[in-house]
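Intended use. Records like the one below are meant for learning the mapping from a protein sequence to its folded structure. Do not use them to infer anything beyond what is encoded.
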Amino acid sequence: MPRIVALIAIPLAAGLFASGPARADAIDGNWCHADGRSLSIKGPQLTMPGGKQIEGDYDRHGFAYVVPAFEPDAGATITMVLVSETQMRVISPAHADQLWRRCGKPIS
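Structure written out for the chain above:
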């Protein structure tokens, strides 16, 4: 009987350890910059720091959009890439890359 238990338990345990830790790694959520700006991503919907909502190209680990006419740098393509569960890099052709961190407060 102990041999049968071992034959079942060992492959099961190996599968659990081999799969690694489960993480929810998606770019969706609220993001803050050190200068006080914040934005929110929910699927293809982006709430910009000024509160305006626009749509962009959403991927679970990235987001891209063309800056609308009512914003500085209108027409530029901004790319956001998830670096870790708590950090996102914002890449703009007009500015240096920026590192944003997850924040707890939603944009009002």
